[in-house]
Amino acid sequence: MALMITDECINCDVCEPECPNGAISPGEEIYVIDPELCTECVGHYDEPQCQQVCPVDCIPLDPERPENRDQLMEKYHRITAA
What we know:
Keywords: 4Fe-4S, Iron, Iron-sulfur, Metal-binding. The protein is of the alpha+beta class. It has two helices and two strands; from the N terminus they run E-E-H-H. The longest helix has 12 residues. The protein is globular and about 30 Å long.
C-alpha cells in the first residue's frame, strides 16, 4: 500500500527530505504523499523513512491503495529507471 498523511500532520517538515522517491510535498494545509511515487521505501530501506521520523505518527497505510511488496518493488523499478 502507499502511505498517506492524515490531518494530524503538524507540518514539521521532517518527512519530506526523508522520502527517497520524492513522493512527499507540501499540500494546501498539510503535507501529502503522491501514491504513484510512494513505495513505502521498498527498494531503498527496510521501513518507510517518513514513518520513522514523524513525531506525531500521522502516516498510516492508505486503505484506498492496496499494494503488495512485489507491486511496490515493480513501482520502485519503474520510478528509478527514469
